[in-house]
Amino acid sequence: MSVLVVAEHLREQVRPVTLELVSAAKELGGETAVAVIAKDPASIADQVDVEGVAEIVSVKVDQDEFENDVYREVVEQLISDRSPDVVLVGFTVNSMGYAPALAAKLGLGFASDVFSIDAQASGLVVERAFYGSKVHAEVEFPDKKQVLLMIRPTAWPPAEGDGAAVEAELDVTISGSRARHKDFQEVATSDVDITTADFLLSVGRGVGEKENLAQFEGLADKMGATLSVSRPLVDQGWMPNSRQVGQSGKTVKPKVYLALGISGAVQHLAGMKTSGTIIAVNTDPEAAIFNVAHYGAVADLFEVAEELEKLY
Ligand SMILES: Cc1cc2nc3c(=O)[nH]c(=O)nc-3n(C[C@H](O)[C@H](O)[C@H](O)COP(=O)(O)OP(=O)(O)OC[C@H]3O[C@@H](n4cnc5c(N)ncnc54)[C@H](O)[C@@H]3O)c2cc1C
């Protein structure tokens, strides 16, 4: 089986999802090629030369930044040139802009938000989520035709180790781009990156009032944790959205996720349920967060915080 991974990068840095796609490709077996589409592919190619990558295909384009039409045309030409059995892209904002349209145009088998793959002799079977992970479904591609899969970020660990990929180039012709990337702006409030934290102390509406947040900021500092929140705290302007976990926030996978006063709505769970160890504190024994928690306490979060303060 031949697999083509489309690398995602930003400002000459490969995005973590790219290396996760390589891990997913390894599970499929066979040859994996990674396509690097960039103005200067060489600067990114080194970063994707990890164990399991057989070939890196550099595609030079004029654009510094991602543009939907450019990727759509390049990936179409890559597919026509190399005829991969499976194309893997991230289930990310970038890929959503072109991958489903391309799959439709070429008549490829298609599934998005894929979090598990099973390459059976009879054909490929993947598991995917719908409605913010409320529903999971198995999708089967029995006739082994070309398939394009959008892989959920964090569902696979990033591939590591030194690679020995051979280098190749593909010349492409781009007919035009109907949407132009004009500018790049850093999000000013992004004081921390909760997606890389090992230990998240996450608070929800159970915290009651904005004034109470300072106590949990202090507690997180003491415990060596990073503070994250559920959406209502962002909606009320209490915390910047860079701290929001969930479907419309960040997907996180810390070693420890300590949830205080979070009910466990599907949109929140979609962003944190693959965390290493989930500990939940909630006064409501029926709270949905307990369905995904490894450890749970039906308790008042302020009392728990007080006890934790004593320990640190
Ligand atoms: C399209 C869409 C996207 C969304 N995206 C996100 C998202 O990205 N992230 C997100 O978080 N939400 C998101 N939501 C909102 C989501 O549906 C929930 O409304 C939200 O997650 C609830 O946040 P919460 O658990 O903090 O609040 P609540 O649901 O109000 O829960 C508060 C919890 O605190 C408990 N509690 C109260 N007092 C205490 C106490 N003293 N001690 C202990 N426990 C206490 C309560 O029992 C309750 O379970 C989205 C919704 C939509 C429609």
Any chance you could write out the topology, listing elements then pairs?
Layout: E1 2-6, E2 9-10, E3 13-14, H1 16-28, E4 31-38, H2 41-45, E5 55-60, H3 68-82, E6 86-90, H4 93-96, H5 99-106, E7 109-120, E8 123-130, E9 135-141, E10 147-151, E11 166-169, E12 199-203, H6 213-223, E13 226-229, H7 231-235, E14 256-260, H8 266-269, E15 277-282, H9 289-292, E16 295-298, H10 301-311
Parallel strand pairs: 1-4, 1-6, 4-5, 5-11, 6-10, 7-10, 12-13, 12-14, 14-15, 15-16
Antiparallel strand pairs: 2-3, 7-8, 8-9
Flavin-adenine dinucleotide binds at residues 204-206, 230-232, 244-249, 261-263, 265, 267-268, 271, 281-284, 287, 300-302.
Whole-number average pLDDT?
93
List the uncertain runs.
Answer: none
Q: How many β strands by DSSP? A: 16
Structural class: alpha/beta
With strands numbered from the N-terminus, the spatial order across the biggest sheet is 9-8-7-10-6-1-4-5-11
Instruction: Describe the sheet with the most strands.
Output: 9 strands, mixed
Number of H- or I-type helical stretches: 10
- State the separation between the terminal residues, measured CA to CA: 53 Å
- What gross morphology would you assign? elongated
Kindly provide the radius of gyration, computed on alpha-carbon positions and rounded to a whole number of angstroms.
21 Å
Which percent range describes the beta-strand content?
A: 25-35%
The distinct ligands, each listed once, are:
flavin-adenine dinucleotide
Order of helices and strands: EEEHEHEHEHHEEEEEEHEHEHEHEH
In helices, the fraction of residues equals 25-40%
